[in-house]
Amino acid sequence: MAQNTRPVPAGTPTDVTQKHHRGGIGESTLRPDGTLKVTGGFAYSSDMWHEDMLWGQTLRSTVAHAEIVSVDVAEALAMPGVRAVLTYDDLPTGVRNYGLEIRDTPVLAHGKVRHHGEPVALVAADHPETARRAAARIRIDYRELPVVTDEASATAADAVLVHEDRDDAHIAHVPHPNVVHRQPIVRGDVAAARERADVIVEGDYTFGMQDQAFLGPESGLAVPSEDGGVDLYVATQWLHSDLRQIAPVLGLPEEKVRMTLAGVGGAFGGREDISMQIHACLLALRTGRPVKMVYNRFESFFGHVHRHPAKLHYEHGATKDGKLTHMKCRIVLDGGAYASASPAVVGNAASLSVGPYAVDDVDIEALALYTNNPPCGAMRGFGAVQACFAYEAQMDRLAAELDMDPVEFRRLNAMERGTLMPTGQPVDSPAPVAELLRRVKARPLPPERQWETTEGADVRQLPGGLSNTTHGEDVVRGIGYAVGIKNVGFSEGFDDYSTARVRLEVIGGEPVAVVHTAMAEVGQGGVTVLAQIARTELGVTQVTIHPADTQVGSAGSTSASRQTYMTGGAVKNTCEAVRAKALETGRRKFGSYHPAWATAELLLEGGKVVTDGGEVLAELADVLEDEAIDLELEFRHRPTEAFDQRTGQGFGHVQYSFAAHRAVVEVDTGLGLVKVVELACAQDVGKALNPLSAIGQIQGGTTQGLGVAVMEEIVVDPRTAKVRNPSFTDYLIPTILDTPTIPVDVLELADPHAPYGLRGLGEAPTLSSTPAVLAAIRDATGLELSRTPVRPEHLTGTS
Prior knowledge:
Helix content is 27%, strand content 23%. By secondary structure, it is an alpha+beta fold. Strand 23 and strand 24 form a beta hairpin.
């Protein structure tokens, strides 16, 4: 067996000691990994290397639903350089399925395949090309079955069951075995409220399947160890969740599966589920050699879950003076072949389906289906994105019916602190919805027809951009607004916690803090913020962020906009405990009146940041001398509770975040081309621990929402359930040429329940940017546009 050596190259963000960035919270401290990433020096998981390494390859199904009649691996095994070929029958006895919430996903397909691209067999070989060729020589005989692709085919009385033997906890409250989860929410009396309405608006909306489109495909390196276990270096969002799913399948105790975070090239929810982790470990344990697996872009589209496509029906009523009377909606999410995070996404979609508005009478139903389409799960916004697209279109339609300004109509109905959510939970922190809308509306508009008014005409200002397909004759400007509400943190009674270990010691005569968590740095800048917190709380300039691994307690997932709140809270609390212990040590050593100690005591009690490396640090070093202070503590937010399965009532969310957008677009109505000129955003972040990073998160989320508005969609053949466009040639994402100006207005209204008063902020801008762009296109064209993404044929009447 290979030695248990550490293959992660130097230069990852986790082993950088931040000597040159001395800022504490509230400062725009630069990221330690930033220069490495923009200069190409950052080591991602796909860059890892190990002596005597093999390459792993997955064989995936070419059909969406079929019985596996036979599997013949003889030709693949006979190829020179092939070291192992594994099918379902080669798996360890015992647990052979995994899953985030429901253990319904087989490690390798057994008996049947349920979606296009499902893993069927594995190969390990001396060279990646050998592994690919060997996988292609595995012969599989399929007997195709009817496919389930939509609600009609999934819930018919004679529907084919995607999972024949369901026994999960949700089966008791769903109307059909092909429904993963259903959540109703009922409050007030919708029938009576409907009678009071002067205007009623109904709408049907379609939301397309979006890919996370992270630039670093799935990859990792599994190294077998001498104790019979395995060390896995992988790009993931949740090390401990992976560990809980991996170890039982390998037949190993968790302590023999040691996981370390490798460089992550983006995530956005797509790395919450297992991809190549179990496969690489199985091959490593079978061959006794390190195994590296790296997906290409084509395989990546099949290797992770996507954003749920949705069908949404909404009804709103309002009085003639513009007050909402009621809301009724039905949200159907396509979860694909396996459950992934669908139950939690359903809970989010239902509980946030009203939006940031005060409505007393609601009747809500949200559900997710099992189908033979690609599996769907977590993606930035997590169910709230689809709902926001629909309810914001409804707000515009209501305003038009009442002949009211769409922003003023929203402000009239905006929630505020104290408003009850449809679940009956009061909003008990600032909810500046009206103010966010006011700010985006008050911002000056960009000049019109810039290709004419700007000196030296630039075709990049035209719809169609560098393709120069329009000369501007049919270009019309449109302006649209939207606002959204997103929960922060895990919900519905989930035990959400994070763990931090902080060590304060003297190195070279200077106090140094080492912060060790299992937080996955996926590009959000968490390593920067954790160091800022440690500097603020301990008053040291040098902070080292230890590599994230499973040798420390769980930090939960880097998702739900929770890491700054949760792991930041854990680091803050642990640093406070370390500081208290340092005070105790100093007082014991020096007494209360020692002049050298007095200054260090003042530093520790005040938690001030020292930026000059002067006398105070030397005195703190004298306090510690040879004894380090090392503590590990957990942090939990206030408890939540599961929603009632009949009424949907319950204190389900810990915190809410809000963002508003104004979109300015120019549309060539003859050619159906759209140019998004500006996407102005206003967002309440509670407290900007790092203002530069906060603005970057808001602009990034805004751009991801822009993508699903006008270009991003995984297209699935409705007859065969096969993916038609699994490449960046055919699946389009915004480039810098598509990205508009994104001015950001940051509010800091503290949440009294959160560390430093902060709010999670990374997801909320993804909600409102999409409907704002659609509203602006509707304003320009006069079309209803009830689906996303908008394509040229939708604007020219050719579809």
